[in-house]
Amino acid sequence: MTPYFVTSGVISNPNINPKKKELKMKQMMTVKMVRVFLTACLLIAATSFSVYAAEWKYAMGEGVNDPQGIYATAFKNFIEENSRHTIEIYPVGSLGEEADMLEQTKAGILQFLGQSTGYMGGTIPEMDLFTLPYVMPTDTKQLDYFFKNSKVINELLPPIFNQHGLELLSIFPEGEMAVTTFEPFHSPEDLQGKKMRVMPGSPILVETYKAFGASPVPMTWGDLIGALKTNMVDGQENPTVWIEAYDLDNLTNVLTYTGHGHFNASASANKAFFDGLSDRDQKLVRAAADHAHKIILSEAEKLDAYGIGRIVRTNPDYQIVTLTQEERVPFKEAAKAVQASFASKSASNKKLLDQMMADLQKAEEKAE
């Protein structure tokens, strides 16, 4: 019977050739190393997958078929077609009000945010720049040039967004503002005592409608429909795409184009999230934003036209008024006080407004 000895928990046979024993040990070590290597590879692969196949959250203040939704969908599609990342879109109302979504993005709960510039004015005062009356042109070619080439958007605003924990990706127009009311108006005197709903969070909107002679009432979008039905307010402003889509024309009697401004929106990312991305993914996000920006610039103009076209077809008795240049004069005069008020609030505001006027002048020259 061959004797066996136990050494350090390993059964050994003294009759085995030492060379064979050494070879066997090397084979065992090789197998062990291979296993360790394969395990490491699996761990690296799993880690890489989590880094390069992340799921990101994008919330916005509109529905999927609205301008912000069109932008978000184009952004999502570009990301998913050019990477392993996926994006979940959360439309208006799914994660609370506009202020809730902004705070969730700043806190890093959401990676991306689509929001109107009017709502952002309460948190980032400089964003009221885009709400100032009779500053933005109504000519779509000038708008397109401005939003693509503006120094305000491309150079001055990004560091301001950074101070608020955000990375600015885009600012884009959604359509010319129209005012819907129960009665027609042609002058600031006609608006005296009229309660006009304005977006909450923007002091400039309140100042604007006070200057226009009305009594502004800050109110969330969710409360607007009920307020119009119960005559709690006498009117409101929005682009025609929103007015038609949410039947605001059936809740009022007159739509008036005053030429005082455009409805604009922004797209931004949580700054800590963006800064933590690889160079490749940062470039991917920027490219997706550029792609979505081009899509929305062409689509927004169509949506504006479709909105007013559908109102004319489906609600033929609805009054549509465009103020004449002469009728706009007193509104423009009143708007100067609002513009001056914005500029006086801070050196940053004044610098932004001065640069915007220069940007718009260039846009007017280039768009001819």
Textual characterization of the structure:
With 368 residues, the chain is of the alpha/beta class. The chain has helices at residues 18-52, 67-81, 98-106, 117-120, 140-149, 151-163, 203-211, 221-229, 240-245, 271-275, 279-314, 325-344, 347-366; strands at residues 5-7, 10-12, 55-60, 86-90, 112-116, 166-181, 195-198, 215-218, 235-239, 254-257, 262-270, 319-322. It has a single domain (55-366), classed as 3-Layer(aba) Sandwich (D-Maltodextrin-Binding Protein, domain 2), CATH 3.40.190. The protein has 13 helices and twelve strands. Strands 3, 4, 5, 6, 7, 8, 9, 10, 11 and 12 form a ten-stranded mixed sheet that branches. The chain has a two-stranded antiparallel sheet with strand order 1-2. Helix 12 (325-344) packs antiparallel against helix 13.
Fourth CATH level, the homologous superfamily: Bacterial extracellular solute-binding protein, family 7
Strand content: 15-25%
The first-level CATH class is given as: Alpha Beta
Distance between the termini: 106 Å
Shape: globular
What radius of gyration results from the CA coordinates? 30 Å
The SS-based structural class is alpha/beta
For the sheet with most strands, the description reads:
10 strands, mixed
- CATH architecture, by name, is 3-Layer(aba) Sandwich
Low-pLDDT runs of 5+ residues are 1-14, 36-50
Instruction: Give me the count of strands.
Output: 12
Mean pLDDT over the full residue set: 87
Q: What is the overall number of helices?
A: 13
- What is the percent of helical residues? 40-55%
Helix-strand sequence: EEHEHEHEHHHEEHEHEHEEHHEHH
Q: What is the fold-level CATH name, i.e. the topology?
A: D-Maltodextrin-Binding Protein, domain 2
> How many domains comprise the coordinates?
1
